[in-house]
């Protein structure tokens, strides 16, 4: 089963502790730091649209793009709570083939979504596509799980549960391939019985230096790195790193 096909319906329940508001606040701090005042924002790999809805509620004109039709269906359902004129415009596209009808002022790609590009060539293509999707002066903000974090997950077992959903995920890191595999057993309550499904998620361990080089090759300038939602350089062993890069 493809990633997020089964997880989509219970993703928000199982990830209730994700602090989207803090991600939005940090995105806005980086925009201010780079003197960018965006009106239009692309939420790349938007998932169920939690960040997209927050952006829309803040007054931005929002496009949400994701590869998963199931996750986008959840985003569309949630967007019905907003006035029609302020709802995000949702599109189903893979990052490496991103194409917008018109450019935007800023692009944000949150929650280590970039790590899901398991081929470096696709990551380089994504940077070029994002560059093309931005207006001159626009800003690209994204975060990654660092290699240190992904290596540290090797052999770990995690459990997430709600009243009607139960997810057990096991991780394995392949040092040679630089891939972290997440095997997820998902149980959902259907009446009086539990239905089981399985998904495999894979993340690539990108080195921050190579990402910076590829951003520069795509045309970006003012490439900066930060710790996890803090305005300082990443520390050794940092688990999550944020990047900002500008299109002049």
The tally of helices reads 7
CATH C-level class of the largest domain: Alpha Beta
Question: Which regions are unreliable across 5 or more consecutive residues at pLDDT < 50?
Answer: none
Using only CA atoms, what is the Rg?
18 Å
What would you say the CATH architecture of the largest domain is?
3-Layer(aba) Sandwich
Distance, first to last CA: 41 Å
As laid out across the biggest beta sheet, the strand order is 3-2-1-4-5-11-10
The helix-and-strand class reads alpha/beta
**Integer tally of domains:** 2
Chain-averaged pLDDT: 96
What is the total tally of β strands?
Answer: 11
Strand content: 25-35%
Topology, please?
Blueprint (H helix, E strand, L loop, with lengths): L10 H4 L5 H14 L6 E5 L5 H8 L3 E6 L2 H11 L9 E4 L11 E6 L10 H14 E12 L1 H6 L4 E5 L3 E10 L4 E12 L2 E12 L3 H11 L2 E6 L13 E7 L2
Parallel strand pairs: 1-2, 1-4, 2-3, 4-5
Antiparallel strand pairs: 5-11, 6-7, 7-8, 8-9, 10-11
Helix pairs in contact: 2-3, 5-7
How would you summarize what this structure contains?
The chain has 248 residues and is an alpha/beta fold.
Walk me through what this model shows.
By secondary structure, this protein is an alpha/beta fold. The chain has 2 domains: 181 residues, Rossmann fold (3-Layer(aba) Sandwich), CATH 3.40.50.150; 55 residues, N-terminal domain of TfIIb. Helices cover 27% and strands 34% of the residues. It is built from 7 helices and 11 strands. The strands form 2 sheets. It has a 7-stranded mixed sheet, sandwiched between helices. Strands 6-7-8-9 form a 4-stranded antiparallel sheet. Strand 4, helix 5 and strand 5 form a beta-alpha-beta unit. Helix 2 crosses helix 3. The protein is globular, with a radius of gyration of 18 Å. The termini are far apart. The relative contact order is 0.16. The mean pLDDT is 96.
């Amino acid at each position: 089963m493809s990633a997020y096909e089964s997880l989509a319906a219970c993703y928000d329940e199982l990830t209730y502790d994700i602090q989207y508001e803090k991600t939005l606040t940090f995105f806005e701090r980086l925009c201010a730091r780079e003197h960018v005042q965006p009106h239009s924002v692309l939420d790349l790999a938007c998932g169920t649209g939690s960040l997209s809805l927050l952006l829309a509620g803040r007054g931005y004109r929002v496009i949400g793009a994701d590869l998963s039709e199931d996750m986008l269906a959840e985003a569309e359902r949630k967007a019905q709570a907003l006035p029609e004129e302020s709802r995000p415009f949702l599109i189903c596209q893979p990052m490496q083939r991103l194409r917008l009808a018109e450019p935007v002022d800023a692009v944000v790609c949150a929650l280590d979504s970039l790590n899901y590009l398991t081929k470096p060539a696709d990551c380089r293509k994504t940077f070029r596509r994002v560059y093309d999707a931005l207006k001159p002066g626009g800003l690209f903000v994204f975060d990654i799980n660092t290699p240190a974090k992904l290596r540290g997950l090797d052999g770990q077992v995690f459990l997430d549960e709600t009243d009607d959903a139960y997810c057990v995920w096991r991780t394995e890191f392949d040092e040679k391939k630089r891939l972290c595999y997440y095997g997820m057993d998902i149980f959902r309550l259907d009446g009086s019985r539990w239905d089981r499904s399985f998904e495999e998620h894979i993340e690539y361990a990108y080195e921050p230096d190579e990402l910076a080089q590829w951003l520069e090759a795509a045309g970006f300038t003012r490439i900066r790195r930060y710790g996890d939602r803090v305005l300082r350089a990443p520390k050794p062993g940092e688990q999550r790193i944020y990047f900002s890069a500008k299109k002049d």
